[in-house]
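Dear Dr. H.,

I hope your travels went smoothly. While you were away I took the liberty of generating a structure for the chain from your last submission, since the lab meeting agenda had it listed for discussion. I wanted you to have the full record in hand beforehand rather than looking at slides cold. The sequence, exactly as received, is reproduced here:
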Amino acid sequence: MKFDRLSQEVWERKYKWKDERTLDDNIKRVARESAKVEETEEKQREWEEKFYELMKDAKFLPGGRILAGIGTSMYQTLFNCFTLPVIEDSIEGIFESVKLNAIIHSLGGGTGANFSTIRPEGAEVKTKGGTASGPVSFMTVFDAETKTITTGNARKGANMGILNVDHPDIEKFITAKHTPGVLTQFNISVGITDEFISAVINDRDWELKFGGKVYKVVKARDLWNLIVKSAYDYAEPGVINLSTINRLNNLYYIENIQATNPCVTGDTLVSTDRGLITIEELASIRKGLVSLVVDPRVTVSNELEGTYNISLTSHVYPMARAFRTGRKEVIRITTEAGFEIKVTPDHKILTDRGWVEAGRLVLNKDRVIIQSVRGIFPKNGKLPYDFSSLDKNLPDEWSYQLGFVLGYLTGNGSLRDGDKNCTIKFTFKENNYGILEYIKSILDRWNGRPVEPIKRRGNLYELSYRRRSIVKLFSVLGIKQVKAEEKEVPLSIFTGTEEAVLGFLRGLFSSNGYIESGRHESSII
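The corresponding predicted structure, in token form, is as follows:
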């Protein structure tokens, strides 16, 4: 590989190490050091030669930080580019990101960040009694840090700054670099989406919003024209289509760009267009086959002193991927109302003071915000198994009646399976005879013939069905052969239709309860 004079100067200034005289010396260093991960000397020699042969003819060249840093005594990164984590909307969070930015630059890396999580200029800062200066103002702090830090081999730091096209400060962001000397260490880009492009094409209005509050409504085309004119006149900003990036991302199976979170346990229920599904099951579903229901929630200051409104708008997005990350320490968060979730300590939870890492929640002080609006139920009512092919009398779709029977069976019934005496059994108090007749009318139809209840001691009635296909129906739907204290709500109902869920809840709350008063004694209530 031959250099012209300019290339030679750049190599000598940026990549040469000590007594290296040519690029060939540089390539030999990279090949030798890269091959050292192999376990045997024979393998190391083999891969050193392979690496060298690829690089000497420029069939393959690693990134600049690798060329400059590997095999040297310099303490610097071997990666060129980094993306900062989501910037927390607080003084502490913003300057934690500034610190991280400085460390990366000092090690030779460049950075990119999306500043859309920072509240807009003029927004109230309740805890400080003032107003926010906005993301563009804080970008100047990152800009000053970058000017100050000189990185390895005299490489200057560099930033990519992004602001989403629906942020209230987007117009100020687009024109920020019209003023000479402003954000000189940044390339800036507007984060656009397919939704925005559609609004431009169809000349629709476009909401500029933050935390569920709409600050301004503009014409999408006017905003687009401002971007284009600014790019033509000042060469800034660029655009970055976040929809396209996620759609074409080679690492789609382990990340969703700009929409990542720390971890939850596999049994965590996630709201989807199919109902509530455990994240463990989501991890086995291919990209695009299920959509997630997302609630972009934040606390919005009210005009009344000391109060908050919670703005909550549900959106449905195709799932990029759910994936397993391994075994990690988790903590359990339980509210006074009994809601609980298990998460890693760094998982952020929405509270009345904003997003807070789970490990930093304050007991008896922080109030956790939970979903407070109507969820989404699946439109397809098909059952997880084609029971009608097994027995023509059985249902093949969710219904209110099936939900009711499942709910009552969960609360006041039992199932026996696995032998010739397979049975489902319901128990009723005498004053619940109307419920008995309702359930009997449904089960008799599925059974193909009527079954008579049996009266037991204590004014109790039992209704039993021994048809194997009926037992299989409820076994597949999640009714387990367990003791009363081990019963759980079957997961199947979480993906049932709205009518089935209503029926299940009514059936469950119509069932009786027991008080265990001795080894072989119980009292029904």
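Two observations you may find useful: Confidence is low (pLDDT under 50) at residues 258-262, 298-312. The chain is about 30% helix and 20% strand.

With kind regards,
E. W.
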